[in-house]
Amino acid sequence: MTTTDRAPDLTRRSLGTGRRVRNGLATGAIALALLLAVIPLGLVVYYVIAKGAGVIDGAWFTEDIVNRARRAGGGMQPAIVGTLVVTGAAALMAIPLGVLGAIYLNEYGKQRPLARIVRTMADVMTGVPSIVMGLFIYVTVVLVTKSQSGFAAALALACLMLPVVIRSAEEILRLVPDELRQASAALGARRWRTTLTVVLPAALSGITSGSMLAIARAAGETAPVVVTAGLTFSSTWSLFKPNTTLSMQIFSNASQPFAPAQDRAWGAALTLVAIVLTFTVLARLISSRFAIKER
Amino acid sequence: MTDRPLVNVVAPVDAPPAGYALPGAVDQPTGYGSTLMELSKVSVFYGDYEAVRDTSMPVRKHQITAMIGPSGCGKSTILRSLNRMNDLVSGARVAGRVTYHGQDLYARDVDPIQVRRHIGMVFQKPNPFPKSIFDNVAYGLRINKIKDNIGDRVEEALRGAALWDEVKGKLKTSGLALSGGQQQRLCIARTIAVRPDVILMDEPCSALDPIATSKIEDLMHELAKQYTIVIVTHNMQQAARVSHYTAFFTAEVDQAGVRHGRLVEFNDTGKIFTNPADKRTEDYITGRFG
Ligand SMILES: Nc1ncnc2c1ncn2[C@@H]1O[C@H](COP(=O)(O)OP(=O)(O)OP(=O)(O)O)[C@@H](O)[C@H]1O
Ligand SMILES: [Mg+2]
User: What architecture does CATH give domain B34-124+197-285?
Assistant: First the structure.
């Protein structure tokens, strides 16, 4: 070590040329990758808005769907209502059950045999194709009740959501520091109390994100809904009647060769994107109200 | 380090514990110095590994008992056995007897939750809940179903932890927005809010600067008037400054080649630091330990 009185050069100029070039290249490559990822996203949003906005007017939200693919006009109310009913019912079934399951796995079961089995089953369930889940519900519910219904579709979607909610919520619960659980226990709190008042609030925003992702995926599912809910053209809030959803309308209208039907498909796509986005933002707002800030 | 002497109590070697009266601790409560908790032949296992072997020592009422020793010798393990925190570690098992007011804490019908309500704990790393300062302190009251005068008791606990003046204007802000030393005092406030009988502290000052450390040490002197304190520390000056009794642990390799924590010596702090009975203690406190 030699010591000099001269101040060392701390500017970027003191770096070697090779290093500066590598730095520039890496930064450029990352920017390019970001751009490549953003392009498809931007195009999707652009096309959905450009093509879908035209058909959306007041009647879109209030009128029944026209039954003729060639004819323009009509609305999309039945599918909007159907999407809300079916996805809402699925979320009400899957999220509480899924979060409870995650609590069992992370706070109670840990590495016990039962917990390991549940974890493996959830992983297997995640891999089941959605159409297979639809057929399963078709066989066990639709054939038994002899009727397609929003409820059957909700069950199929709930089965698809459940493993996703369980696994994502468990990951989030795992991130809650053990020191908090110990601090709570040292004050004489029982485990359920610790879970309810310390662990869950700390994990709330993460659990909400995971659940919203599951809802968004479910709202866009088409195949299991087609076989379980049927295809209707007038709106019903009843869970126990055949129903229709936006995803089904996108599918059935887009596969028609007629321009009015294709316009309807785009409009339905825009509506679906808007609904999912609205609920995601709402859920974020609500959970940030309850969740405790880190700082 | 603060400007205090290494050993603040240089008492005659055979003086009774009362000879170590701390500044301000004039009116000692009754029962002072009697045995409140007792470990007899306590061994703690993690799975098959016996982390600490055959420890016997008392914890005296309204006194500060320090546990010192090299890293990994089982101080935290023994401390956690005093309020059954080891129950939370899967595979951990305690053999021997730990008594509190003469009751075996590990008897079959003892509820660990009740144990922890009487024997609180402050951890090495400050771990406030991600809640407001007020809710952090009120948490223990709420789980103990104390509903009346929560505000007063929170204030009292914060005053007791010498934190009130710094936070009284911002009780609604997050406990995580405090400095490390303030967070640790918040954790102490949270512990004393439920008025436990015994407070266990696992290296409460290891993350703190000398000023925050001396605040907490002063606080311990205050707290000892009302509570019984057991503290684990790596800092021998701290043990010498604050404690009345000191237990020195070390790790030993047995014939089978396995390391176990052992209690080497338990005595009045003055004796341990001025006239230790065991060579190993002397080596450790004089810094000759490897
Ligand atoms: N949860 C655990 N599982 C298995 N072994 C453990 C566990 N906790 C501690 N041990 C082991 O028990 C022994 C004593 O650990 P302990 O944490 O009590 O030491 P310590 O004296 O507190 O050390 P330090 O001063 O570094 O905090 C160590 O050998 C450690 O590896
Ligand atoms: Mg330790």
Answer: 3-Layer(aba) Sandwich (3.40)
